[in-house]
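step: validate -> pass
step: tokenize input -> pass
step: predict -> running
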Amino acid sequence: MFSSPALLRAARGLALANFVALGLLFASAGLYVQDFRGLDVHGVAAVGLHITSGALALALVLRAWGTKTGLIPAVTAVLLFVLTFLQALVGSAMTLTLHFSGALVLAAMATWLIAWAFSRERSGDARRSPELRNHYPEGAHS
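step: predict -> pass
step: emit ->
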């Protein structure tokens, strides 16, 4: 159906797009908190975050299903996608403290997913080279 390298390339691009959406969210939140500007940008970036995190989750789930590796990143991406909707629910003035805390959790998850997607062992080097393969414990490719 889909090749693992193609899904990994897609996941890398989506992880970066997801991170850009988070950056726009943080910047527009700062503008909103300071001078009540940027709420429209914040809303558009939030929709972008929902879309990119959902597509990232799909790509990583398909990759995990096809390769039987990478279950932890796939689950993390699904949780990230679900948490973006919970984040939107607590975005009112009454629950702004939860919204700020949730933003930090989303940023940590998105950062971890980028680090995982671009880590060296993902490039296939550890699978192709016998001397590198011995440096990774079994299952460490997840």
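step: describe -> Residues 4-35 form the longest helix (32 residues).
step: cleanup -> pass
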